[in-house]
């Protein structure tokens, strides 16, 4: 029997500026819609510092999903949307479940409060917002105020969805009595013929949203201390001032001549870039899942990730790369191992693609989400 699902998310595709969360939420919506469910999305016109080229309040069909983009009044990260809240108040009882995405954002906090007041069944995906890194960095006073005025009480009315064991533990640490479940993100994986060509210089790739939490400075510093320095390729978009600081840092470290800035990569481009790298590096301070880790292994490219990346257990269990701390010396050591361990590279080339296909099958994950929507 088809169920009716409403997603509330601060931003939705094509707002790719916000990174992997946009992709994951869209894949979930599209997958459940393809499975025969009635799926709608309420979101805003947010697109970083600009607005999406849509008519606010109009419902669009976006890859099989009914999406309404509501006007936001303020820019990131404090924007609000009375129009979205009014529509939600009128409609939320019409759905079997409302799935709330993200937190510390007035759009979703008020939306969750409305659904709680209306006694609507809710699932909540934090997308990393319950991590210690997020709780202890930026706007700490505001977060405390939100908790004091009822933020935790609102969350207790939901069942949380974690994408990894680490994120599950973060949620339970935030509210001990909270109940939830673990299902990985759904990641778009195209039909792909694996064709690996040797690079004349060992190539390390960073491919993600360019943001301070990604630990890019750690990676750059570690690379600067390596013997037989690799080529570092940095792909992604972010704040231009921050990117300029990173470029200046590369000059200070003396690695600017062995660092390439590729900019934002679309779906097709990024899989090609991943396939032609020798190693994907993601030394983040916080990463609840890490979509790009799945994408890299799918292209048979091994990974070097920090223990703060949600998928570190999967990588360790299947020996698909290297896991490090956020200590520069440890990153340097693991990079050295990656550059010299031909056997592990051959193992990932042979096993990575098939392991990802079986573990992160979209059909299987959609089925798991639908099961959770109809239980609890």
What does this structure look like?
It contains 14 helices and 16 strands. The protein has 376 residues and is α/β, with parallel strands linked by helices. The chain has two domains: 196 residues, Glycogen Phosphorylase B (Rossmann fold, 3-Layer(aba) Sandwich), CATH 3.40.50; 157 residues, Rossmann fold (3-Layer(aba) Sandwich), CATH 3.40.50. The strands form three sheets. An eight-stranded mixed sheet has the order 5-6-2-1-7-8-9-10, sandwiched between helices. It has a six-stranded parallel sheet with strand order 13-12-11-14-15-16, with helices on both faces. The protein has a two-stranded antiparallel ribbon with strand order 3-4. Helix 7 crosses helix 12. The longest helix is centred in the C-terminal third of the chain and has 18 residues. The radius of gyration is 21 Å and the shape is globular. The mean pLDDT is 94.
Report the order of strands and helices. Answer: EHEEEEEHEHEHHEHEEHEHEHEHEHEHHH
Describe the main β-sheet briefly: 8 strands, mixed
Give the strand order of the largest sheet, numbering strands 1, 2, ... along the chain.
5-6-2-1-7-8-9-10
Structural class: alpha/beta
Strand content: 15-25%
Let me know the CATH homologous superfamily of the largest domain.
Answer: Glycogen Phosphorylase B
Q: Roughly how many Å is the radius of gyration?
A: 21 Å
Silhouette: globular
The tally of strands reads 16
Distance between the termini: 17 Å
CATH architecture of the largest domain: 3-Layer(aba) Sandwich
**CATH topology group of the largest domain:** Rossmann fold
CATH classification, class level of the largest domain:
Alpha Beta
Please indicate the count of domains.
2
How helix-rich are the residues, as a percent range?
A: 40-55%
Q: How many separate helices?
A: 14
Residue stretches low in confidence (pLDDT < 50, at least 5 long) are none
Query: What is the typical, i.e. mean, pLDDT?
Result: 94
């Amino acid at each position: 029997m088809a169920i009716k699902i409403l997603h509330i998310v601060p931003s939705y595709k094509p707002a790719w500026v916000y990174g992997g969360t946009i992709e994951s939420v869209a894949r979930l919506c599209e997958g459940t819609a393809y499975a025969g469910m009635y799926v709608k999305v309420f979101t805003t016109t947010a697109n970083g510092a600009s607005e999406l080229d849509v008519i606010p309040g109009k419902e669009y069909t976006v890859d099989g999903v009914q999406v309404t983009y509501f006007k936001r009044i303020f820019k990131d990260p404090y924007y609000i949307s009375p129009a979205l809240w009014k529509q939600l108040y009128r409609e939320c009882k019409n759905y079997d479940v409302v799935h709330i995405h993200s937190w510390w954002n007035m759009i979703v906090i008020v939306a969750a409060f409305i659904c709680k007041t209306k006694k609507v069944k809710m699932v909540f995906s934090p997308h990393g917002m319950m991590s210690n890194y997020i709780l202890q960095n930026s706007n700490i006073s505001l977060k405390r105020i939100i908790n004091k005025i009822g933020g935790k009480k609102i969350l207790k009315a939901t069942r949380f969805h974690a994408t990894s064991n680490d994120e599950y533990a973060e949620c339970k640490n935030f509210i001990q009595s909270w109940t939830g479940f673990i299902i990985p993100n759904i990641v778009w994986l195209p039909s792909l013929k694996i064709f690996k060509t040797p690079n004349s210089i060992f190539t390390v790739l960073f491919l993600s949203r360019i943001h301070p939490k990604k630990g890019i400075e750690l990676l750059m510093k570690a690379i600067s201390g390596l013997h037989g320095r690799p080529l570092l390729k940095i792909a992604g978009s972010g704040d231009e001032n921050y990117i300029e600081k990173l470029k200046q840092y590369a000059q200070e470290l003396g690695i600017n001549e062995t660092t390439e800035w590729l900019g934002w990569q679309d779906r097709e481009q990024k899989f090609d870039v991943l396939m032609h790298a020798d190693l994907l590096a993601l030394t983040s301070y916080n990463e609840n899942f890490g979509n790009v880790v799945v994408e890299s292994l799918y292209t048979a490219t091994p990974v070097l990730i920090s223990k703060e990346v949600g998928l570190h257990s999967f990588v360790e269990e299947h020996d698909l790369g290297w896991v490090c701390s956020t200590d520069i010396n440890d990153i340097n050591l693991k990079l050295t191992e990656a550059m010299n361990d031909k056997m592990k590279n051959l193992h990932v080339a042979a096993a990575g693609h098939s392991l990802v296909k079986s573990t992160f099958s979209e059909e299987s994950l959609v089925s798991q989400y639908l099961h959770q929507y109809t239980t609890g």
